[in-house]
Specification:
Subcellular location: Cell membrane
Protein name: UPF0344 protein CQU01_09390
Shape: elongated
Order of helices and strands: HHHH
Membrane topology: Multi-pass membrane protein
Number of domains: 1
Largest sheet: none
Organism: Cerasibacillus quisquiliarum
Transmembrane segments: 6-25, 37-58, 70-88, 100-120
Radius of gyration: 15 Å
Strand content: under 5%
Length: 126
């Protein structure tokens, strides 16, 4: 159940990020600000559901897997930070190139760990 909540919440967050970016590009600052606040709510849901998954790993895992869980946790927080950087920098009219690069790198690494390595994920890569 926690896995489904976690995956659903970050998928919705990605969709909301795309909506924020599109609204900013169209100049709809009010709509972008409202959507960004909803996106921030999903950051909280992601962190809480991710924390529940991490606690499950700490109950049942050991050794190298714990290192991967800690790495995935840090990467997940990096993804959220990059998403927020993208939204805030767009709102301020600043360059988002570096934030997008960070987002793509952190997101891909997080996906690889979550879907390819750790046992509570949906194994797509193996």
């Amino acid at each position: 159940m926690n896995t489904h909540l976690h995956i659903t919440s970050w998928v919705v967050a990605l969709i909301l990020l795309i909506v924020v970016v599109m609204l900013q590009r169209k100049g709809n600052e009010k709509g972008a600000k409202i959507t960004q606040m909803i996106l921030r709510l999903f950051y909280i849901i992601i962190i809480i559901s991710g924390g529940m998954l991490v606690s499950e790993y700490f109950k049942h895992a050991s050794g190298a897997m714990l290192g991967e869980v800690i790495a995935k946790t840090i990467l997940g927080l990096w993804v959220i930070t990059a998403m927020e950087l993208i939204a805030v920098r767009m709102a301020k009219g600043r360059s988002t190139k570096g934030a997008w690069i960070q987002f793509v790198i952190a997101f891909l690494l997080t996906l690889i760990l979550g879907f390819g390595r750790l046992p509570y994920g949906v194994h797509l890569f193996g």
